[in-house]
Design a protein that fits this description.
two-stranded antiparallel ribbon; elongated
Length: 112
Amino acid sequence: EEVSVALINFEYHTLVGRAIHECLDAANTTADADLCESRPPSYYLEEARCDTTREMAELAYQAGEAGRHSGFRPARSHFELRTIVQDIGFVEQNGNGDWQCPRVTTLYQAVK
């Protein structure tokens, strides 16, 4: 859980860093670049974390570029999916407490 939260936070910091770089790349004048350098992180991403600093955004952006990360989706989203497939009967708990797909011979038998 903590790793997922850290990666989600990393993603938000990276998005701010990317937006700052895009602003700088689009700047036509020194004044435009100065504006990019002076705006707060929330200007670039409305849902930016309150602890995002320009320095943190830059570090996250550089790390994302170096690691070639294009984004992150938390693994915890799979828990909701697993609950759904349990509820509709596509996975069942066996006698050992393990979850498995039910053994059926036809697709019709699998749909309950």
